[in-house]
Amino acid sequence: MKKLLVLVLLPLMLVIFASCTQAEKENTRETTDYLNISAQEAKKIMDSETGYVILDVRTEEEFAEGHIPGAILIPDYEIESKAEQILTDKNQLILVYCRSGRRSKIASEALISLGYTNIREFGGIIDWPYETVSD
Q: Which residues neighbour 49 within 8 Å (Cβ) at sequence distance 6 or greater?
């Protein structure tokens, strides 16, 4: 009888444990992933909030040709070596973009892996219908 009870309870306990582990992962996902937003959502944040950083992750040449006003430049290939020196508040809202959206996704993932918690990736400047400035 005890063996039968163990055989019935053991799989049940494993299912419960696996469910709790999955739920815990889902609850922590919000702080371990970046959010993908539209250019319109990014512009709304820029117009209504303060204390954020606009991060351009393109090359210096691309940045000089045209960028979003107020953006700072850290090329995607320099995120891991320069982000912590330049972006000192890991909880600050950081709006990330590149040319088409590929590098901004890579850079956003790198920022998350460095411990940044408030990343919003909004794609590429080619889809930015608002003002840009050139150096």
A: 93
